């Protein structure tokens, strides 16, 4: 079957129902045909509850077949779907449900079964593309829904654009691929890549959770061809003993896409040395989607870059007065795309504050090289100014992570009357190490003014399930303890 001529999941499932769609956390397999039947039943069930185009469904679901069903069911009847992090407290969940005006909230398999019960497995009438509305807190304040206009067209009219874009950015193609889900699907990239994989006709293998060796075993068992990961996963896998790393056949991997956080050069180089040139990186945000991308060989030629603007995107680096900066000069990154805009639900002021005309600021500082490749410095909110000099925590963290005894690290700025801020490193070791040894390690790697004034050791550092370091939480805990 030529999947390149069959646009998207719903058409593929109808034409090739026996194709394996999902292998769940327990190893149970679901075919494209059976998945489509369930998706159609839930679509009918949602309409029977009175939901129409533009209405909102919220899902508080762990990774698994039910999360996939809700994603694809809302995606063909013009609904907004809001995945909610099931780690949140009840008040945090209630806030999102109230803010997004969810008419239906799905909390587990029983809810999905109730929606499907007694409903036909045939396609609903008047199909139109839905959209996922992710909630993000950005840098401050309560989380806000990132809402995009609904296309107003059936999914089959929209999918070719996805397929073209993913082909350009990640070399992903329709066919017999196998996609591995390694992160919670309530986050934007894992959720989006699950949906993309089904539109490409791939099999989606859902890992129960991220653990380094079991992930390698899944790659070998299912001959995984593509996956979405984050840098902290790479760091943990590189810490596996050499004999464990050699145990697994990873030759099926063609694309491992990584995003969500800056990847230290040494970590990425270590994975490339192990897996070969399969790492595809993109940089963006929930608001901007994939704004920059870089393929393996371009990265190897320019280690540390996050790439050039993705197709349809333009980018600029501006100073605080809004003037464009030349190559090599760090400033605020601004992007815009011809694919459309977004707004923060119920918050036009926050939407306006994030924009400069048509240009959106993800909140990061970076610079272009002479060839237009972007290099990130850090989040604007995490910038440390010490003695009038800008210091970027991510650069220091990357250097510290190169020490083999370090499992994780967070670098923060702590207020100081004389210097403005002092650099403090909180280190999570996995082998004995001293502060003096770390400073000695940094000598050839960083200028002296970037060295931490204080190094303290921690048993654990707070990271999100997708691997983002929560510097704000680290900073709050450190300052409150003082």
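Sequence proposed for the structure above (482 residues):
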């Amino acid at each position: 079957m030529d999947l390149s001529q069959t646009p998207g999941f719903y058409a593929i499932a109808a034409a090739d129902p026996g194709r394996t769609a999902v292998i769940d956390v327990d190893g149970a397999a679901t075919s494209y045909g059976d998945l489509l039947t369930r998706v159609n039943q839930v679509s009918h069930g949602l309409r029977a509850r009175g939901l129409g185009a533009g209405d909102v469904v919220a899902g508080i679901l762990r990774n698994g077949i039910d999360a996939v069903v809700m994603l694809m069911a809302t995606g063909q009847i013009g609904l907004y779907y809001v995945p909610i992090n099931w780690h949140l407290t009840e008040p945090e969940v209630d806030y999102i449900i109230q803010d997004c005006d969810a008419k239906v909230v799905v909390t587990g398999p029983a809810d999905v079964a109730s929606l499907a019960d007694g409903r036909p497995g045939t396609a609903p009438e008047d199909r139109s593309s839905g959209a996922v509305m992710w909630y993000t807190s950005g840098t401050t304040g309560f989380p806000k829904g990132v809402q995009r206009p609904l296309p107003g067209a059936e999914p089959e009219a929209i999918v070719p654009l996805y397929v073209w874009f993913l082909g350009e950015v990640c070399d992903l193609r329709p066919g017999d691929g196998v996609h591995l889900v390694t992160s919670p699907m309530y986050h934007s990239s894992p959720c989006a890549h699950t949906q993309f994989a089904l539109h490409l006709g791939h099999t989606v293998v859902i890992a129960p959770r991220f653990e380094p060796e079991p992930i390698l075993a899944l790659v070998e068992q299912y001959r995984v061809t593509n996956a979405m990961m984050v840098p902290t996963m790479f760091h943990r896998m590189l810490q596996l003993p050499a004999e464990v790393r050699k145990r697994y056949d990873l030759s099926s991997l063609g694309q491992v896409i990584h995003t969500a956080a800056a990847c230290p050069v040494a970590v990425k180089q270590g994975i490339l040395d192990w897996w070969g040139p399969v790492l595809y990186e993109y940089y963006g945000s929930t608001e901007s989607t994939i704004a920059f991308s870089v393929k393996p060989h371009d990265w190897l030629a320019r280690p540390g870059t996050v790439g050039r603007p993705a197709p349809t995107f333009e980018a600029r680096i501006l100073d605080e007065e809004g003037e464009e900066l030349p190559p090599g000069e760090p400033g605020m990154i601004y992007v815009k795309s011809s694919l459309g805009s977004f707004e923060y639900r119920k918050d036009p002021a926050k939407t306006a504050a994030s924009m400069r005309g048509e240009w959106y600021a993800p909140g990061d500082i970076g610079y272009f090289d002479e060839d237009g490749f972007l290099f990130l410095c850090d989040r604007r909110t995490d910038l440390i100014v010490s003695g009038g000099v800008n210091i970027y925590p991510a650069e220091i963290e990357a250097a510290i992570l190169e020490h083999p005894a370090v499992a994780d690290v967070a670098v923060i700025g702590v207020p100081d009357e004389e210097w403005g801020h002092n650099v403090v490193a909180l280190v999570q070791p996995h082998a004995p190490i001293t502060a003096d040894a770390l400073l000695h390690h940094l000598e050839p790697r960083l200028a002296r003014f970037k060295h931490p004034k204080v190094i303290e050791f921690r048993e654990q550092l707070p990271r999100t399930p997708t691997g983002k370091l929560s510097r704000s939480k680290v900073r709050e805990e450190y300052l409150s303890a003082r």
